[in-house]
Design goal:
The protein is an alpha+beta fold. It has a single domain, classed as 2,3-Dihydroxybiphenyl 1,2-Dioxygenase, domain 1 (Roll). A hairpin with a 4-residue loop joins strand 14 and strand 15. The strands form 3 sheets. A 9-stranded mixed sheet has the order 12-6-7-8-5-13-16-15-14, covered by helices on one side. Strands 2-3-4-1-17-20-19-18 form an 8-stranded mixed sheet. The protein starts with 19 loop residues before the first strand and ends with a strand.
Length: 305
């Protein structure tokens, strides 16, 4: 799906088209080790620290909140975070990021999704991360009759999961490019991808309640996608941990919540009204409105103005 691809379904209410994904909050066992990883491997900067909680990102914005719980446990076969995806402004910055991982010998898996170039990795405690840039000039993907289809710009079919030509990507680097630079200010959270217990149930929540546009469910691969403003996806969800997978117990490592950033207070209030009408209990916090999807993934609704 290209940025101007029409969604499969718009409901009676659509979330504001300028809605984006904001900071992701994760529980970890070692704040010190994780801070070191994100600084060294990805160039994150520490923005502020409050006891067992630290906020990382660029010099201008939060991208990641880490909350330490030394006795938290990682549970398998549960719902939660598959990955959060850091969007780089262009191939040159993505090349710099991947070259940095290679230099540090951080395991990662460069992949060509045709319309995006990407690599996947885990942090020190198994939280999934995607680094990507857009490349719509190379082709697009679509969902038709529950099938995920990727075509290159010349019309030929692709699996959408080809090995990335890393050497060609590195051709975008210049001699002056240093690998130890901080994360570029233009980097941001492009999307999140969640493990859920049911695809239709998740679509009913993210599309039917929150108002994201339905970009389709790929039954053949167990995934669904929603977005705002015609983007290919702001939220992906899958049933790869098993249909009906349980939520992790309390005191678990991993996702606490991800942020849905709305452009203003009015746009936020529109979504909150729909939540209240649906009978879902929201919790007002200092940062925004916290609620949970049917798979118990935390969602924080916040306004930028």
């Amino acid at each position: 799906m290209t940025k101007d691809t029409e969604p499969n379904g718009k409901g009676e209410f659509s979330i504001h088209p300028d809605t984006a994904i904001g900071a992701v909050s994760v529980t970890v066992t070692s704040l010190e080790d994780q801070i070191g990883f994100y600084q060294e491997a990805l160039g994150f900067q520490v923005r502020r620290q409050e006891g067992s909680r630290v906020y990382l990102g660029t010099s201008q914005k939060d991208l990641l909140e880490l909350v330490e719980d030394p006795i938290a446990t990682r549970y398998r076969r549960t719902t939660g975070l598959y990955h959060f995806a850091l969007l780089y402004p262009d191939r040159r910055e993505l090349a710099r990021a991947i070259a940095r991982l290679y230099a540090l010998q951080v395991p990662n898996y460069p992949t060509d999704h045709i319309m995006t170039k990407t690599t996947y990795l885990d942090d020190l405690e198994g939280n999934g991360i995607e680094l990507y840039c857009e490349s719509p000039e190379d082709g697009a993907w679509s969902l038709k009759n529950g099938e995920y289809i990727t075509r290159r710009a010349d019309g030929s079919l692709s699996s959408g999961r080809e090995p990335l030509d890393v050497e060609a990507l590195f051709g975008n680097l210049r001699e002056v490019d240093r690998l130890d630079q901080p994360l570029p200010e233009t980097a941001r959270l492009g999307h999140v991808h969640l493990h859920v217990r049911d695809l239709e149930e998740s679509m009913d929540f993210y599309h039917g309640v929150l108002g994201f546009d339905d970009m389709g469910i790929a039954e053949s691969v167990g995934m669904g996608f929603v977005s705002a403003g015609g983007y290919h996806h702001h939220i992906g969800f899958n049933i790869w941990q098993g249909k009906g997978a349980p939520a992790p117990p309390e005191a678990s490592l991993g996702l606490r919540y991800f942020t849905v950033s709305l452009p203003d207070r009015f746009a936020l209030e529109q979504v909150v009204d729909r939540i209240q009408q649906s009978g879902i209990p929201p919790e007002e916090t200092e940062s925004g409105i916290l609620l949970h999807d049917p798979s118990q993934n935390g969602v924080l609704l916040a306004s930028l103005a």
